[in-house]
Fold this protein.
Amino acid sequence: MDLTTLQRLPMWIGGKPVAARTARYGEVTNPATGEVIRHVPLGSVEDVDAAVAAAREALPAWRAAPALRRARVMMRFRDLIDAHRKDLRKLVSEEHGKTLADAEGSVTRGMEVVEFATGVPHLLKGEYTENAGTGVDVYSIRQPVGVCAGITPFNFPAMVPMWMFPVAIACGNTFVLKPSERVPSTSMRLAELFKEAGLPDGVFNVVHGDREAVDALLVHPDVRAISFVGSTPVARHIYETGTRHGKRVQALGGAKNHAIVMPDADLSFTIESIIGAGYGSAGERCMAISVVVAVGDVADKLVDGLAARARKVTTGPGDGADVEMGPVITAAARDRIKGLIDKGATEGAKLVVDGRGIRVPGYEKGWFVGPTLFDHVLPAMTIYQEEIFGPVLCVVRVESLEAALDLVNRNPYANGVALFTRSGYAARRFQEEVEVGMVGINVPIPVPMAFYSFGGWRNSLFGDLHVHGMDGVRFYTRGKAVTARWTDDGSTAPGFHMPLLG
């Protein structure tokens, strides 16, 4: 293939595609074939400056637009996403590798946040107290923070950006998105649809790039808020750098999600749930199940069932018929995952199903790792401690719910957790005592609906507010309290003492 003939993606600045100022370009690949399919600019400081300038210029008029007008743009945007969801899923699958069905599901979950944002006239309503003091009224309002930025990962090219920018923009802010350079095309298509929906130029901008672009956003004096989803080390860097430069920051980090299986669980349902949650999207989800905690005598039956189902998982290209699991994102990711499987076997875990030797006919150059299952994993092992971000399930055996809760609560990550049981008592105790941000009861991937907020605890979140839902509205707005008195009778001013309103 002549790589010089491949498409070079532009930026999206000021409501139109704009040639990048940078001279650096990266490769966008199809993980199923290993082929380069287009090139993406790795934005410079000048590219970031241009995008932020466009957002700053568009801010006054958009901030002043009635919330209902902004909501109507969101309504049209939502309808366009729905009409083009097949095209969007194809872009997601092509650049990420996940199956078409999984890609379409992620587009839908992102669209649900747009649906939530259409309610912004109600969401921005403040409070009002008449006659809080004699002739004095007190009320609160929420106002946009200004130019906001989002930095998003490769694993959800549509959903995670739409966790951020619809809420920010509906609240009256303007936005600069820096998507993963691995999966840049979906964001460009969303920008086109947003413009078609009637969004004014400059309100939404897309800058492609790597760390240079990220660091430029973090220190830019006109960027007031930063949202991030990615690994914990980068989340910590984003949070510390952004807050040091006076910005509001929400930075969601890594995960090591556990699924606790009680002896009374519906085993067939539980096995199918865990298989989908562990191997769906090749395990490249921040909410993927990574550790299965088998309680008591359920362990042997659970492991046997998981192994039998794992061996039947169909692996192949994301657009293949009946494919359940696609490739991982890069050759480097594949090699890292295989190295961790090597490490698990070396450290003494029992390798029940080995996905290292998988071959997909016709896609020998693709970056595939087959479903892998370990049993008798101990907390001191590397495969328990590290976020593998691949199709690897680790079974840890414990004797009681108390031991399972202790295991989960001692883990440095606290993003998501699930419990499989028929016992209401166990479930209620679990939801009260587990120290994790998102909890599932017989639900393996407890990603909240758009009208709730997404976020973990401990090393899975840096910042006080989660994404989307009401936390998103709070993050992208600032509260203001107004105390007002109107007189026409020559009333005496309070004087030098602290004013009393009673």
